[in-house]
Amino acid sequence: MEAEQIEALFTRADGTFAFARWGRPVCPVVFGVDDATLGVVKGAVEAVCALAGHEMGEMDAELGSNLMLFFFREWSELPEVPGMDRLLPDLEPLVTRLEAAEANQYRFFRFDKQGGIKACFVFLRMDRHLSAVPAHTLALSQIVQSMLLWSDLAFQDRSALAVSGETTVLRPELAQLLRAAYDPVLPHAASDPSHALRLAARIGAPQ
Which residue of 35, 48, 96, 116 is surrounded by the most CB atoms within 10 Å? Predict the structure, then answer.
């Protein structure tokens, strides 16, 4: 990938560049699925963390679980969940906006003092579109989008995934970018577009 392509993946609709990766092990928990789907989701977390060279844990010392995925039918269910108003700021207005937009997913990040990701909350309203997506594909897509602070425009026109034979996989160029993003030498967060040059250099370097 060229630096310009990488920069676009972290440049938001308002023109600002914002890159962040996890600064601590990812400790997932999943709500609203059966045991089989739970295994698929956790398998996706393991696979993406291994690809990035990032650690996966059982329990975060500060937060317990720091990657929370919620599967449900209607946005109106969220305010009924005990403690949800502490996870999501302005919960009632947010639910109203998501319902009006007929959204089927929402992702919210929290960051540490260095700007790295310390928590991510993923909400999936299982409408007919998401329900038609195979569990492995849906899980892989969501975990990839939770591993970095991608632009809000990054995957509007093209999925992060590709089909290889009968298997759905992360697009190869994004897999390379994910590995580069977790290079220990790089900072956990960056707001200068020149960071894209550093990522591009690592993608082009011999492995």
Answer: 48
